[in-house]
Each structure stands twice: as structure tokens, then as C-alpha cells.
Q: What sequence folds into this?
């Protein structure tokens, strides 16, 4: 056994037994780029390897469901009159705990891309937030940053936040929860799937350039937060809502041409995740030339390009022969774009750099429901839950002064309205609204 490589695998967040599993899949020892790919694709953030056992028990079928949970980038429900509602919720907890403004903002950006990559135009955003002790300086800093990040991105992108909630409890002091939701509307027959079909069809990347921000972001999101977590700040992405607005309009326009085969946004694990998931879904493959990826820096290594989670990027496959029409739309919206590869029949994602093969992996082995590991972890029922089940309220006397009780309840942080009143604004208050209806 190559102990040095095992050590590298463990430093990337993989288990020693997972490294052995990777060697069996490839029939050889993986190189660093391949090991990096497995580390992000087999992270909890991408594969749900520690939670999928329980997630699969949730209901996901229904007569009005047009896309079941896990089938596409987002859920899709028939709402009648030829219309469908597209929706998804996504967490951006770890990034927001370290850099609350960008962490929350990119959560909003990513969830909107999941919606419009399916062909739905986003019309509303929601959020569900959990913070620690409201009196600590850290919580105040986190609340201010998260709320401003959500508001600034949504306002700049032009989509209103129509509902939300916030809750404070000491158990969230270290690990806050920042859940963003986007809702979109589309025709019931207009869905674009995240597929890679048609051997020889060109693979485009479009949107913004690829940089070094967000590298190993998916693996970082699966780690525990500690005193050393500030070292992971480069794993936090940086968003640009104005750029995303251009990508939205371009996406809507290229879909209308009828030439789009499949499309997926580049969120966690970037190019790696999009190419692997789209290929595995279709049973096809992709050959990608990393030298053709538009970059922000000239010195990026193969694994850095593969794992970058730079925001506002999309991967789209079109019917070959229609490149000029598609590129004219990208030019119209002033987007960065390029053909970076093509669909193959190999069943593998293959990445070239400098004329050499940097990584060659069966796409099915990387994705949820394929070769990614699934664990059934030990669990116990929390003591507080048992105590709640045994709680008996029958012996509590009704208060004599209900008005006073109501006032006390309304003064609690988890009950009080989070809206900014006109009087507070007129006095120059720095209070922020945390989602309508919070």
C-alpha cells in the first residue's frame, strides 16, 4: 500500500477504505487530480453518503410531481393551467459561518441557478435561518452579514424575498444554518434536464471566468467548524448578482431556440460535478479540454480548474450544428463562453490538460446512486427529545394576566417581528429585515 497516497487521501477528507475502493474502481492508483475529484464528489455535501439512507425514506411521489426529489436540479410540480412550479432549498451553512455576507449571497445565487437551469424563471425567494445566542458579538456579526448578503444579492438580481424565518438558540452558536429557497414558474412541457446526450454534441461553459475561489468548497462544507476553519476562507465563493442576471436572460433565450440538450449550473465541485452528473444521468461520457476553460489566472493547475467553485457559471450541451445561433446569444448578453469538450459514449469523464490526460474516471462511480459510498451511521435518540415526549402541560395553571404574558412572549427574539418599522427607520435604526413574514 502506498502510505503517502493514503495520507494524501485522508488529508483530502477520504477514508483509507475509500481510497482502496477508488483503486478498485480505477484498477490503479489514482493521481492527485483524480483523488481530488473523488474527495469532493464523495463528500457529504455532494453524495449525502451519511444521510441518504434517511433521506430516501421521505415521501417523493405524487400525481402532480413532474420531477421527483433527486431526479433533477430542483423539484417540479404541476400547478394547473399548463404551468409548473419549480422550487428548491439549499443550505450554505459553513461558508456563512466563516464569511457571512458572501456565504449567504452565493447561497442565493446558487439556488437561483438551479431553478433557471431547468427552464424556470425565478419569481420569489425565501429563507430559513438559525443562529446562536442573540446577545453574543459573534451572533450579531453573523446576523448582520447573512441578512445583508441575502438582501443585497436578491435585490441586485431582481427577485424579491417573500417569506422567511429566523430562530435563535445556543445550540447554533458554532454551526449556524443558512437555508435559501428559490421558486420559479415555467410551462409543464418546457423542462430542461441535466443530461448529456448525443455523441459528438459540443459542451459549452458560459457565464463568468473560472478562478481559484471556492476550490475544495464541497469538501470544506462537509467538515466540522473549528479554530482552524479560518484557514479555509479561500473555499468560500464570491458572487456577482449582476452577472447572474445576464446569465439568466441568456439561459432563457438559448432554451427557446430548441437546441439545448441539457444544462446544469456549476455549484459544488464545479466542472467536475456538472460533467459527472450529466454524463451518469445519460449513461454517456464527456471529454473535456481544460485548456479551453476561460480562466481568471494563467497559472491554474488541472485540479484547481476541476474543483473551482467560482460562481455564475453554467454547463450546457447543444445539438451539434447550431453553435453560431447559441454563440450569438452569448455575445448579445456579453458573457464569457467557450466549447470545452464533447459528449462521448465512453461512460467516463475524461479531462485533458496540456495535451495529456489529467483524469479518467467512470462517471457513474462519482455520483449519488452510483458508486459513491453509502453509510448507515450509529444513532441514538437525544435525551431532550425523550423529555419533551414526557412533558405534561395539564398541571400548568392558566395565567391571570394574559395581556402581560402576551407582551412577554412578543418580546422574545424567536417570537418578535423581525420587520423594520417606519419609526425605527426614521430614527436611523440599524435593524435589518430578515425575510418577509419572519
A:
Amino acid at each position: 500500500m502506498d502510505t503517502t497516497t493514503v495520507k494524501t487521501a485522508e488529508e483530502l477528507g477520504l477514508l483509507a477504505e475509500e481510497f482502496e475502493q477508488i483503486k478498485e474502481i480505477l484498477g490503479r492508483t489514482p493521481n492527485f487530480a483524480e483523488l481530488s475529484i473523488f474527495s469532493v464528489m464523495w463528500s457529504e455535501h455532494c453524495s449525502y453518503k451519511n444521510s441518504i439512507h434517511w433521506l430516501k425514506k421521505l415521501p417523493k411521489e405524487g400525481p402532480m410531481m413532474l420531477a421527483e426529489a433527486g431526479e433533477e436540479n430542483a423539484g417540479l410540480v404541476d400547478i394547473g393551467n399548463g404551468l409548473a412550479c419549480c422550487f428548491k432549498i439549499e443550505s450554505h451553512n459553513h461558508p456563512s459561518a466563516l464569511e457571512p455576507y458572501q456565504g449567504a449571497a452565493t447561497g442565493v445565487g446558487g439556488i437561483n441557478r438551479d431553478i433557471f437551469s431547468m427552464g424556470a424563471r425565478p419569481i420569489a425567494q425565501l429563507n430559513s435561518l438559525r443562529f446562536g445566542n442573540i446577545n453574543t458579538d459573534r451572533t450579531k456579526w453573523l446576523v448582520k452579514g447573512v441578512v445583508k448578503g441575502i438582501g443585497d444579492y436578491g435585490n441586485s438580481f431582481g427577485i424579491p424575498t417573500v417569506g422567511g424565518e429566523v430562530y435563535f438558540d445556543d445550540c447554533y452558536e458554532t454551526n449556524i444554518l443558512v437555508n435559501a429557497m428559490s421558486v420559479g414558474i415555467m410551462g409543464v412541457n418546457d423542462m430542461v434536464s441535466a443530461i448529456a446526450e448525443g455523441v459528438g454534441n459540443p459542451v459549452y461553459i458560459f457565464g463568468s471566468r473560472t478562478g481559484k475561489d471556492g476550490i475544495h468548497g464541497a469538501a470544506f462544507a462537509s467538515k466540522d467548524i473549528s479554530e482552524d476553519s479560518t484557514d479555509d476562507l479561500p473555499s468560500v465563493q464570491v458572487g456577482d448578482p449582476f452577472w447572474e442576471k445576464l446569465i439568466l436572460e441568456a439561459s432563457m433565450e438559448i432554451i427557446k431556440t430548441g437546441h439545448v440538450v441539457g444544462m446544469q449550473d456549476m455549484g459544488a465541485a464545479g466542472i467536475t460535478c456538472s460533467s459527472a452528473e450529466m454524463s451518469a444521468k445519460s449513461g454517456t461520457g464527456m471529454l473535456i479540454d481544460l485548456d479551453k476553460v476561460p480562466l481568471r489566472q494563467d497559472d491554474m493547475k488541472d485540479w484547481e480548474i476541476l474543483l473551482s467553485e467560482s460562481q455564475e457559471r453554467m454547463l450546457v450541451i447543444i445539438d451539434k450544428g447550431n453553435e453560431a445561433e447559441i454563440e450569438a446569444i452569448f455575445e448579445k448578453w456579453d458573457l464569457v463562453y467557450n466549447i470545452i469538450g464533447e459528449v462521448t459514449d465512453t461512460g467516463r469523464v475524461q479531462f485533458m490538460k496540456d495535451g495529456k490526460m489529467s483524469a479518467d474516471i467512470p462517471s457513474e462511480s462519482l455520483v449519488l446512486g452510483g458508486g459513491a459510498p453509502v453509510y448507515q451511521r450509529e444513532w441514538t435518540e437525544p435525551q431532550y427529545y425523550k423529555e419533551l415526549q414526557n412533558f405534561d402541560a395539564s398541571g400548568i395553571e392558566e395565567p391571570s394576566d394574559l395581556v402581560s404574558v402576551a407582551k412577554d412572549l412578543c418580546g422574545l427574539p424567536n417570537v418578535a417581528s423581525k420587520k423594520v418599522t417606519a419609526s425605527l427607520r426614521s430614527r436611523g435604526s440599524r435593524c435589518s429585515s430578515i425575510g418577509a413574514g419572519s
